[in-house]
Amino acid sequence: MAQSPHENAATSDVLRYDLGWKAINDLLREGRSLSGEERNCCFLNLGSGKGVEFADVSSVLGLDFPDDGRVLALSDWDFDGDLDFWIANRSGPQIRYLRNDFREKSADFVAFYLQGTDSNRDAIGARLTVTTDAGVQSTQTLRAGEGYLSQSSKWLHFGTGDSSQIVSVRIQWPHGTVEIFGPIEAGKRYLVIEGGGGIREWKTPTIQPLKPSPLIEPPLSDQTRIILLAPLTLPELDGLTKGIQKARLINLWASWCPACPVELTEWGARVGDFEEAGLEVVAVNVDEIDDPAQWTALKLPFKSQHGGEDLVKKIDVIQRAILSRQSPLSVPCSLLLDAEGCLRAIYKGPVEADQLLADCRLLEQDAASLLAAATPFPGRWVQPPGGSTPQQLVIKFLEGGFTDEASPYLETLVADPATRSAGLFNLMGGIFLDQKKFSEAANAFRDALVLDPKDRKAHLELGTLLLAARKGELAEGHFVEILAMTPNDPDLHLLTGRARLFQGKLDGAGESMSQSLALGGVAGIAESLHELALAYADADQLDRAIAVMEEIKSRTPAQEEALNEFRRKSGP
What is the pLDDT of residues 479-507, one digit of tens each? Predict the structure, then answer.
């Protein structure tokens, strides 16, 4: 995993960082855990000063959940004088409220809410120190964030032990002014306003007792129904996406799967209903060996064919491209396609005939109806999800090694005004680059820029191709376009310098390369500077050539001999 790129990070560094996160996210989608299934830990400060300072009390306090925990926020949620825990997890349960009921006294705390006037209103950055009548001092700073992606309560909460009185409250406000108050009673909450507003007791509101609701786990099932929010064009799947004139259900089954023949037999008994609904079934046997007798024995009125290992892998890639939580493809599994051959639903596990008939009627419904059917629980969307895109599918096919299938699929997508996008043209250009079809790659990146003139990737890839062809003026235009968006990229300054070098713009090339060095430099800078020095020498500008070589020498001592050669040419 690469370190987070800094502000002036090169494009290559950002790419390595993105690839690192992609690898981690791929593992998470497969059900892996960032924490490695470690239980939550809670340590008690013993304050003994005798070598053993902390004790692990995770289990006795009931905090050692085996969750994939991320966020811990503290707040006296029930106003009983002790801090309760809110814990958020990456996986379920995504939030836990842990009420703290371990206090035995009512006056062993004091809490303060600060309000700035000259300082920021939230008083972020203020430091508050309390001194009890036992002479114990405690200090806290009011912060705008606590830990990872969390914000605890803005109340500054102190434990006071056996003390019943706070003899001193010292507040250093963010602007630097200091106010001191006291004495005050423990066991209460106080509001403090900066700049003479004083300190006054804050009355706890009357709240109803909190009762925990039962934690009900949803029933686990091997059946999953996924309704797509928008039709998704599919690549070619061994003829299964061709010749479609009405809705088609592609069903993967195996002779060793007990649920498969049961499902197919139920559908066979409803074949009349299927025909009336305009639904045809194609059963694809995925046994390792093609044995037509297995299908003949079922005596079912559906089309059938054998599906090899490649077909199963392709369908597995499709479901992984659509689902965030990814799991291996199982049988039975079915894909519902509309009359245009677009994917509309995925069924993992058995599905009843009535559900299929209902979903066939759903194919003609509007976006709101599809969203309601796709959402497994009631609620209100602040912003409806966008759904799956063909680009996701193309990327997964390429990652799965199905380049031969991805290429014609891409051509189909970019030929259709409804599906073409700059991102798809960039993917096509990348495939051509891998195949060393540089002219076709350049044309694909140009097409991307027609759709999105500000597309960074298209400008970068096309500029790099033009630079390799030593078309410096054209390449420079693309690099300058990106520099307007990201002016602190050392990679881009170096590429711009090389483009100017090829045009004979030596001073401009030197300026761009110097800017690249000032931003941290990148791989290949020494070689580019050496070319610039040679160009200066060929132009009889030996003083400048020597200055460039001096810069190279400071970074690459092996260039000493080349530098001496320039000095000999320049004379005494």
Answer: 999 999 989 888 898 899 889 989 999 98
Torsion angle, alpha carbons of 468, 474, 477, 479, to 10: -10
Please, are residues 485 and 458 in contact by the beta-carbon 8 Å criterion? no
Q: Which residues contact residue 344 at a Cβ distance below 8 angstroms, ignoring those fewer than 6 apart? A: 227, 228, 231, 232, 336, 337, 338, 359, 362, 363
What phi and psi, each to the nearest 5 degrees, are found at residue 4? -60, 130
Tokens of 411: 């051509």
ω into residue 261 within 30 of 0, thus cis?
no
Could you report the per-residue pLDDT of 382-409, keeping only the tens digit for each?
888 888 889 989 988 988 889 888 899 9
Backbone angles phi, psi at 449, to 5 degrees: -70, -25
| Residue 22 to residue 489: CA distance in whole angstroms | 22
Q: What is the DSSP string of 528-547?
A: HHHHHHHHHHHTT-HHHHHH
Alpha carbon separation from 210 to 84, 155, 242, 532 (Å, rounded): 13, 20, 60, 74
Instruction: Tell me how many degrees the CA angle 509-527-553 measures, rounded to the nearest 5.
Output: 95
Of 329, 327, 326, 325, the residue nearest 313 (C-alpha): 329
Distance, CA of 364 to CA of 344 (rounded, Å): 11
